[in-house]
Structures are given as C-alpha cells and as structure tokens.
Design brief:
This protein is mainly α and 198 residues long. 56% of the residues lie in helices and 3% in strands. The chain is elongated, with a radius of gyration of 22 Å.
C-alpha cells in the first residue's frame, strides 16, 4: 500500500467507492466527450450546411439522442457544438448577404444587380426562417453591428440563443434515474441560458 498524505480529523476528502458503479453511473472525461461529439456531428453538419452554402435550418433538423444520458454530459457538449455551428451558419448567411448586397449596389448591370439582390434575400431568409422568437438572433449578427464593430450587440447572447434553439429542437435523452434526468435538464438550461428567454 502506498501512503499519499495524512488526512487530519474533520477535513473533507473524497474516496473511491462503489456507489457510482452500482448505479451504472460513470464519468466520461471531457476531452473524450468533445472528441466523440465532434467526430459524430461534424460530417452531417458539413453535408447539410456547407460553408459555401450555409443552411442554418438544416442544422436544426438534426436529432441527437443519448439513450443513457446520466447527468447529460454528452448532450451538453452536443448543445455547445451544434450551437456554435448554428451561429457560424447564421453569421456566414449574414456575411454572404452583405457581400451580395454590396455587389448589387456597386453593379451597373441590371441582371447582375437583380441576381445579387436575390442571393442576398435568400441568405437573409434562411436566418429569418429559424424558429427564433421575435427574430432576436438577427440583431446579433455582424450586419447589425454598430459602426466600426465586428459583431452585433452580443455575440455571447447570440450563441446562447443558438444553443437554446438546439436544446429545444435537436436534443433528446433518456435515463432510468429520474434525478439524473432532472440534472441533465438543469445542465442544458444553464448551458443555453440567454437573457429574456424562459
């Protein structure tokens, strides 16, 4: 037996026990969870919403199920990952719409101007069509940024809105332990909390 350190009386300490193993609860290292989520979800996201033709609505059509979710570690990471990808797709739509609007504004050819205007409308509509209450996400995109700034009012809030949309439309979980289910719901709520959303 190896001596690690002396623990004085009254001091709090943790020791290995059989409680988690007996209940079927296991901790999965975060680095592995992140890797697994990325490797699993990135290919269908890239297929549905490529960078050159972003479609944020297609990302929200993905469904993620964890049939033994425990406290929701995998679902929370999936929420983070999909939320970031959803925001990225919305931001790309916004940038491509701005680019098309500038092309339409600077073009003297009527056909080019109409084509560019139509492309801009298509990209803007993809963000507007998201099930976002009151289209709040629109005001957080770069085109809504105050003069001289790169992003809208709050990129962090925009990402939180995207995570909320993902949590509501994409994530599903089941567990035999009702307390674990409640903890997972709380974790997802905390992860996707955005001011003004219930």
């Amino acid at each position: 037996m190896e001596w690690i350190e002396e623990i004085p009386p009254g001091r709090f300490y943790l020791r290995v026990g059989l409680g988690r193993k007996a209940s079927g609860s296991y901790y999965t290292p975060h680095s592995f969870v992140r890797f697994l989520v990325k490797e699993t979800l990135e290919p269908p996201i890239n297929e549905r919403s490529p960078k050159e033709d972003p479609k944020p609505g297609e990302i929200l059509k993905l469904k993620v199920l964890d049939p033994a979710m425990g406290s929701g570690h995998f679902l929370v990471e999936a929420c983070r990952f999909l939320g970031e990808k959803l925001y990225e797709a919305c931001r790309l739509c916004d940038e491509l719409a701005l680019e098309a609007e500038q092309q339409a504004e600077n073009s003297e050819d009527v056909e080019t101007r109409n084509s560019a205007s139509q492309r801009a409308k298509i990209f803007r509509q993809r963000v507007i069509d998201l099930p976002d209450p009151n289209d709040k996400l629109m005001k957080y995109l770069p085109s809504a940024a105050p003069e001289g700034e790169e992003t809208g009012f709050s990129q962090a809030e925009a990402i939180a809105l995207c995570r909320r949309l993902v949590a509501v439309h994409c994530l599903y979980g089941v567990d035999k332990n009702p307390l674990a289910v409640e903890l997972a719901k709380l974790s997802l709520w905390l992860e996707s909390h955005a001011e003004g959303l219930l």
